Structures are given as structure tokens and as C-alpha cells.
């Protein structure tokens, strides 16, 4: 096992007591040592220690959990994680899996690029690391879908290597506790937060510390209405002392979100099966199956006529479906043709498939497909 990184220097710890460029003016800030001591004391009593990925800890198990937990709540992740680990207990099993099966098990978790990157990384680990999860921060960070914070968390929790982390929960804890103003996504602010994270990370009990700071952000120092009265940083936190909990972290500058409209072509056979199309491997819903989508209504209708061999189709508009992406909002207008004939629709089996919700195939479905198929069933279509 490689040597752990050197602990934070005394100079760095002392720096935390000063007032840096983006800190609240005149605010007394805690030292890294006091921060870590208070956090570990809290973790010993209140920390989460019985989550599935905290049992039989290996780099692989921690890696899967860290990816699933990105932008996803623990309660949501647990059943997905347990099913995933039962089917893919190690990296070789995952690397050998068909893409569709992995995406099928991921259906409902969202942010599907995570699943695609898991597959790419697993295959890289088998091809370039002999099936053993790499043990250096640089090698882990070089894997698809793994950034600096995730790499640090994996090695800290599974190998007790000393690496700071800075995910969304940790950013919120540090900006409040140390009174750091400015949007954390800005380069200068993020650089300063990494410095603070490094200074706070202890040389001992680094696995517990890493879990503790994530737990604190997830359960106590939450986004709205933080539980300051029971927080171990109650006496140390700049935001709590100055009543700044509601304004830290500084929100991202607002930009007007663009809105887009598209049309979903739903061909439904007499037996209830619907025709799905596999999305291209990159881009929105990459590699997932969903209803064919078009920018114009006429294009959707023309496509349905061509693939059923019929003209003047009786199409029905279903209620509009709304979905928000990171950078825009989409309104999807579903167009339904019931009792459609197969005709040429299934000629390209790699691109199209008939999906029967009563006997579902093990494929990855985009969220609109999941919701629209459920809606058809509820309406008795």
C-alpha cells in the first residue's frame, strides 16, 4: 500500500485562524485541529456506521457507493446499491456485464453518465490494472467519472490514506464553518476550500473523518434549516455566530434557463407493447431506451406513418411531460398511436425494440420512458 500523504502542516493550521480573502471580515475562525477533533467526537456518537457500503469495506464497494451517492440521497441509493452489488460483486463481474444490464439496474437513479463511466472504469481496471482497484490517487483519478474528491474519498475510506475531499456537502460545511463568501464553484473560492479541507483532514482516523464530514453535511448542516443546535461546530461556526446560515454557501449566479419543446412518438401494439428507440451512446440519456423524439410534430407523425406503413394516422395527444436538465427545461408532448402494426419498425433490432411492461426486458430506460409507460398503464391504454 502506498504511503499516506503528509498531514497538514502547522503553518496551514495557523492560516485557518487568519482572515483570508473570501472569509467574513473580522470573523474568528477555528483551527483545522479543533475542527477535526469536534467532528470525530460527534461521529463516534452520532455518525452513520451501518450503511451497506460500510460493511466488508473494499475499494470497489466504496467506489460504487460514492458514484451512486453523487447528487442522490442515501435512502434512494440503498436498494439500488444492494441490487447492484448482488449482481456485480466485484470489478470483473461489472467489467464483463452487457451495457444494457447495467443501465437496467441503474434505471431510476438518474444521471446515467455515472453508470456508463462505471462500466468504462471497470473495464479499464481489468485491462490496465489486472482487475485490482488502483491504490494511488493519480491512478484512481485517471479513471472515467472519478474526480479529485471522489478519488480521495475512496482511498480514505477503504485504504485509510490521507486525502482531503470536497463534495457538495463538504463545501457547505466548510463555507459556513469558516465563513467563506463567494460562489464555491468559482476557481478562487474552490482553491481556498481545498486548502481548508486539506488543513482540516487529520493524519489519524482519516476514514472516520471522511465519513463524518459527509454525514455532517447530509444530516445536520443541510441546505435549508440546518440543525445548528445539535451541530458539533456550534461554538466554532462563523455562519452560526453571525446568522449567515441562510446565505452560505453563496448561491450560483442565476441565469435564465432556456426552455425546449419536443414530441415523443409512441407506437403501441394491440398487446400493449410500445416501440422504444436506443439513444446514441453520448449526449442526453446516452445509451438508454426511450420513445423516438422529434423537434417538430410533423416530423414525429411522418416517422410513425413510415414505420407503420399507414397514412393519416389517428394520433392522440397525451398530457405534456416536463423534465428538467442541468442547463434547460424540456416539455415533451407525447403523441400516441394505439394498435400499431409492427411493419418495418423492428427491422433494426440494435436501434428499436418492442417493450412490454408486463414482461419487461432488462434494458436501461430513460426517465420519460418509465413515467410515460406507467401513465399508459394507469390510463388503461
From TrEMBL:
Binds 1 [4Fe-4S] cluster. SUPFAM superfamilies: DNA-glycosylase, Nudix. Its cofactor is [4Fe-4S] cluster. It catalyses: Hydrolyzes free adenine bases from 7,8-dihydro-8-oxoguanine:adenine mismatched double-stranded DNA, leaving an apurinic site. Keywords: 4Fe-4S, DNA damage, DNA repair, Glycosidase, Hydrolase, Iron, Iron-sulfur, Metal-binding. Residues 68-219 form the HhH-GPD domain. Its EC number is 3.2.2.31. One of its GO terms (molecular function) is purine-specific mismatch base pair DNA N-glycosylase activity. Belongs to the Nth/MutY family. Adenine glycosylase active on G-A mispairs. MutY also corrects error-prone DNA synthesis past GO lesions which are due to the oxidatively damaged form of guanine: 7,8-dihydro-8-oxoguanine (8-oxo-dGTP). PANTHER family: ADENINE DNA GLYCOSYLASE. This is Adenine DNA glycosylase. It comes from Steroidobacter flavus. The gene is mutY.
